[in-house]
Amino acid sequence: MTFWALLTLVLLLSALVAYLGDRVAKWAGKRHYRLFGLRPRQTATLVAVLTGVGIALFSYLGFLLVFREARETILEAQAIREERDRLKAEREVLLRTRGAMEAEAARALSELNALRVERKELAQALKEAEALKERLQGEVLSLEARVRALQEEKARLEAERLRLSRLLSEKEEALAAQSKALAERGRALEALEARLQGLERAALGAEAEKKRLEGERRRLEAELLALQRRLEEARGERQALQEEVQAMRLRLLEAQRELAQTEARLRALLRQAEVLEGERGQLSERLLRLSQGLYLGEVRLGAEEGRAALERVADRRAILQGFRGAELLAGEVRGPGLAVLEGAGYRDGTLLVRFRFYPEKKAFSAGEVLASATFRLATPARNQEFLERLGEEVRRKLLEAGFPPEYAAFPSPEELARGLSLLQGRREVVRVGVVAAKDLWTTERPLLAFQLLGGPPGPEVPVPTQKVP
After folding, report:
1. Alpha-carbon separation of residue 307 from 299, 304, 314 (angstroms)
2. Has this prediction a pTM greater than 0.70?
3. CA 17, CA 10: separation in Å to the nearest integer?
């Protein structure tokens, strides 16, 4: 029903309520009725008010019974809004969870990169420590070789000292023998004295050589002690380096364990991200299924309205359904006429909308019979079956005349009940037709009703002499 038609209906109902309320109030006032102990005028006012309330209530119930789409919209609006709010909440929760997972994955990747850099540094430090260890081992070997050479030089000098000591003792014994021989050989004193002086000079030279060798020996012993101290220090440094290498190996093992744990956490995060991606895909599929065939209602287009007006209405109704907007699919349209909007998919938060356009034209005039049939009355179930067949023919004619399938829905349960009520109390053969209650336009819901038609029975009933009562 269009806005102007609804406004006209409301005005007519208001006028009817006012008129009937006034008539009923005058009727009650003339008869001086008293309700609940009130005066006649007050009773007339109360009767007028109750009459207006009853008329408005019956009008509202009639509106709900006649207009199925309005009834469904009013009854299901709250459920649709709750479903839309729930889907929005689920989408926000999934988006927040996805953002948190992506941040956690980025942090884990940065930690993994830092651990890899630290492992690389530890490996470089380990290589340097191994090189330093090998260099120190080479120095230790060279020092040990030098110590052995010094020890050999010391042994050689010691042997030379013993040889010189023996030589000196031998010379001293020779001097003693010569001294004894001097007492006996006085005549050879001068020759021996000269020889003695030469021997004394040799002894002095030997004594000087001995002192020099003693100083050399002390110097070599000092150098040997220094080398031993350096060797001990090198051994201490070697032990410290070995301990440091062991500690670095322990740190490397700990880093490898932490790296393995981080990789396990990263794999878990990746699995969670895959699960979230799957849930996101399922949500997208649910939204896609929800958007496929989503009924957005009809749009009445005026003589100068076209695709732009249709896009505005589709965008507004898509936003009311919880989407970011609407994208109207290809197709040109120009009023006057009726466009039926339907969902055709979902893309990036935007609802894809297709439309069916029905030009405005007068299909049937008021009082015109769309379909009729003559049949013999039987059980209520059989009578209902005949009426439903008549309704199928009416629907076919409405579709051929250019009505939307949503409007070509006849008979409704109420109309079917009214049609069956027409047949109550009748017998034998009747002729029933579906008559247009007003002019039927393709852009409005057709107002149809079952009616009993006069005249002879049709060819459907093999009783040509029987007349319809």
Report:
1. 11, 10, 10
2. no
3. 10
